[in-house]
Amino acid sequence: MIIGASFIGSECAASLKxxxxxxxxxxxxxxxACPFERTLGxxxxxxxxxxxxxxxxxxxxxxxxxxxxxxxxDEKRVKSVSLSDG
Length: 86
Hints:
This protein is of the alpha/beta class. It has helices spanning 7-20, 42-54, and strands at residues 2-3, 26-29, 57-60, 63-70, 78-85.
């Protein structure tokens, strides 16, 4: 899961999907109605969302991270996240 669908989040999603192809599912959580809504506008954001979707990346809009829960191992990885509607 990638948090944020602006420049860095979108680039990470695209790069990971290109590298791992169908071996992993990529999901982006976005607080806005569409990617880049505030920076580039809804029309461009909708275009980018379609491009991601066409390439196998899922974007969930109008959702915020409520909490992130750490795993029990020494790696301090995120085990799960709780989402809330925006």
